[in-house]
């Protein structure tokens, strides 16, 4: 059997288990095979196992089925956060069911190859456990920040990460902060930490009732006396800027030094020509481990976008020195539907 992708799946190849000899091909190859089969009165094909292929280029790529942004619930929070391994993962498999999952499949195997965004979950969870073991005093938010700010966005050909759907370049609404890098995440230099009180202020800013907030946080004494004017004020490691009717969006973030004492960081910004980005201060000096410093970033739309379609552009804010690069992705939207 030749299993050819439709346009929705693009060039993504998933190693499904089959009950008969089969091969999967992308949409482009599938179209060529169909054309050949229709034009040749006696079409033939031969399936040959090519062995294990190493050093695939480009790699990694963003899976076609990977969840995409923008965040439709809270657009001021950029989603996704990060990406990780999730395609064609070889892992332990229960012998209670065959590799295809079909009732008629009576084969038994201790391992199986499975794909899905859910396959990324145990990889990222394992990295979080690794960071927690290395840094027992880190909060979940600090761990998330370390994974995000150290993620990479360039593949093994030194190109920007690509979308497996059609081979096009991906963006922060596709890969978030990028692909996780365990080694760098162990030593991120700085982290964006978030306290429970800040999360509660964030929830209160979303328009939930007091009872709804109490249900979420499991605390009876919530009053929502403190709430953010803008949900984007949450001390998140990324930025999602919605201009709408505003020309200026301003956020203050707080960084915690988890690197050496006497660390000095300078900021570097990157963005589209349609947006002005200014950061104050431009240098942060951390004299102690655990010391916290704040900075304010102003985003100014140089011209107003017209039309009813969603328009987005991208940038980044990087605090760096010779040892660390603490990178935050930024998305800009003029109209959000």
Q: How would you describe the overall organization of this protein?
A:
Helix content is 20%, strand content 24%. A hairpin with a 4-residue loop joins β14 and β15. Among the domains are: 133 residues, no CATH class; 34 residues, no CATH class. The chain has seven helices and 15 strands. The strands form five sheets. Strands 8-15-14-10-12 form a five-stranded mixed beta sheet, with no helix packed on it. Strands 7-9-13-11 form a four-stranded antiparallel beta sheet. A two-stranded parallel ribbon has the order 1-2. The relative contact order is 0.13. It is α+β, with helices and mostly antiparallel strands and 337 residues long. The longest helix is centred in the middle third of the chain and has 18 residues. The chain starts with a strand and ends with a strand. α2 crosses α3.
Shape: globular
Instruction: List the uncertain runs.
Output: none
Number of helices: 7
User: How much of the residues is beta strand, in percent?
Assistant: 15-25%
Summing up helix and strand content along with how strands pair, one would put the structural category as alpha+beta
User: How would you state the average pLDDT, rounded?
Assistant: 93
Compute the separation of the termini in Å: 42 Å
**Biggest sheet: strands side by side, in what order?**
8-15-14-10-12
